[in-house]
Amino acid sequence: xxxxxxxxxxxxxxxxxxxxxxxxxxxxxxxxxxxxxxxxxxxxxxxxxxxxxxxxxxxxxxxxxxxxxxxxxxxxxxxxxxxxxxxxxxxxxxxxxxxxxxxxxxxxxxxxxxxxxxxxxxxxxxxxxxxxxxxxxxxxxxxxxxxxxxxxxxxxxxxxxxxxxxxxxxxxxxxxxxxxxxxxxxxxxxxxxxxxxxxxxxxxxxxxxxxxxxxxx
Length: 217
Ligand SMILES: Nc1nc2c(c(=O)[nH]1)N(C=O)[C@@H](CNc1ccc(C(=O)N[C@@H](CCC(=O)O)C(=O)O)cc1)CN2
Ligand SMILES: Nc1ncnc2c1ncn2[C@@H]1O[C@H](COP(=O)(O)OP(=O)(O)OP(=O)(O)O)[C@@H](O)[C@H]1O
Known about the structure:
By secondary structure, the protein is an alpha/beta fold. 24% of the residues lie in helices and 18% in strands. It contains five helices and twelve strands. It has helices at 17-32, 37-53, 55-59, 76-85, 158-162; strands at residues 62-64, 88-93, 101-104, 112-113, 120-121, 137-141, 144-146, 151-152, 172-175, 181-182, 200-202, 207-209. β7 (144-146) and β8 (151-152) form a beta hairpin. α2 packs parallel to α4 (76-85). The chain is globular, with a radius of gyration of 16 Å. The termini are far apart. Adenosine-5'-triphosphate binds next to α5.
């Protein structure tokens, strides 16, 4: 097992939050890069187990999820598990730019990386950003969350913008490694007014509820 730390960047009221966020991202990605392909593969199976067993996911007709990049919490086993169960899965599509679209998963093999560093995407026709309203559960990537539900993402503001389409009452769950949950009282993440809060985090071992499911994201 690699030794993975929980990096922290102390910040104060005078600091530029986008700069602080970028420092967090770099530090957390450096920790993620310590995991071996074998550890990542095992983790991906564990995430699939925890998410796939959630009662809300079992009951869902449509789940919005994501196709992971190399060091992110892996989702291939989860996508497989959901598809085999007959759950409809929506995945983000950025297209040639940074569009906020969705497309249904047809098979994990069909996912295509369009450019280095970008997430794999479905190849078929896309639905608009508001297709997210069809989801009964939303599973999002994150570099970290804090116990108040604040989420640090990749830095494009993609999810902060698209989550406005989630129906009220629909659970929004971030996949993170255990070290990536920060205590909001002692070590809060930097937060800007546009940041949305997830309801829960899933690690390789468990669901951690952070907010009431009925609260808006
Ligand atoms: N797996 C996954 N899918 C996701 C996200 C994410 O964080 N993870 N997003 C969360 O927001 C959205 C958009 N994600 C993006 C991810 C990368 C780039 C990007 O520009 N990548 C660089 C290469 C960066 C690198 O090498 O690390 C590039 O294309 O030049 C843009 C958007 C939607 N889908
Ligand atoms: N709802 C919004 N409307 C307009 N701009 C936004 C909105 N949300 C985020 N942004 C802009 O997007 C940029 C990135 O935001 P932020 O650093 O919070 O991304 P993130 O949540 O880490 O990334 P992502 O959501 O892509 O995973 C910021 O410049 C921010 O101003």
